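Wed. Picked up where I left off yesterday with ABC transporter substrate-binding protein. The coffee machine is broken again, so keeping this brief.
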Amino acid sequence: MQSLRRRLGRLLWLSLALLLNLLSPATQAQAQTHTLSFHDDVGRALTLKTPLKRVVVFNRYTTEFVRAVAGMQPVVGVDIDSARSHRYWPTVTPAMLAGQGQSSPNFEAIVAMQPDAVFFPRNSDWQKAATVLGRFGIPVVVVTAWDVLKHEENVTLFGKLFEQAQRAEKLNAFYRRYRDLLAQRLQAIPPTQRKRVYIEEVGNYRTLLKGSGWHDMVELGGGINVFGDVSILDQPSARGSVQGFSVDPEEVIARRPDVIVKLEPAQYEPHSRAFSAQVLETLAARPGFERLAAVRSGQVYHISYYLAGGCSKIIGALQIAKWLYPERFRDIDPDQVMRVWLEDFQQVPAPGGYTASLAELRK
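Structure written out below (tokens, as returned):
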């Protein structure tokens, strides 16, 4: 009898120990950890444990995706672009600075942050980052959030990496709504009747070529990039890249743009009206530009990067479409779409005032 009692007692203690082990925080965390295998934006096969709890993010577009899908709690490090505006990034502190930019990461700081993963876009120095951080067992994931054509793919991946599929689908539904609206309303316009657009980066006569997200934004908005036929592979490196390509002033005039769009760098806060007016008046006064239909009709526009780049540039495409074909997009207000992006997905107020036009100045 005593032997039976001892055996029963021992069995009870073993059962209790097993139960406590199963209920322990470490075991619970282990039980909730999964693995995800996928290919990143440059085709590398990666396998990560999910959900990601600590990440370092380079490029603000990617940081915006993380905030929209998972909130800012997992973000332990950012580059300088996401540390400039405290109003836009209220949870970012100086201690979270992981580098000056996507091509100049501070590897020592990143290692000290002990991230589960570090995100870089494909136009960064991700190869060096992968080599250096790989020595410390820190994976580098290439995700190009500024690429309007990869929006759904990128957001779906974030939903899986952070195990926030519902929030990811909500963002994708928002994006699809306007992508499909653009396609439906523009499909009836034949290529020969589409408006010709000269889009210029910061700096005089610096345009954007095929392969840049800005070129895709123009095309999604129903425009024809007047320099869209230029292949960067056939050009001397001194003229720049797809993200900023130097053109001759006479070349711009010869290509007869119907509309001119001037991009200017900006943070969350919009440019002042005085700044926009100076940009537009200076551009319109360039030698020979008075001959352009765009200048004569007042269809010269200044747009902040912040609206142009909103939600993978789909809001920028909406604004382009509204400028090019106002009758077809009479009921669409890009500022209101931007408000939803900022207030619902980024959890910050929407100040508005991100665009200006030459026609408005002439009134």
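Quick read: The first strand starts at residue 34 and ends at 39.
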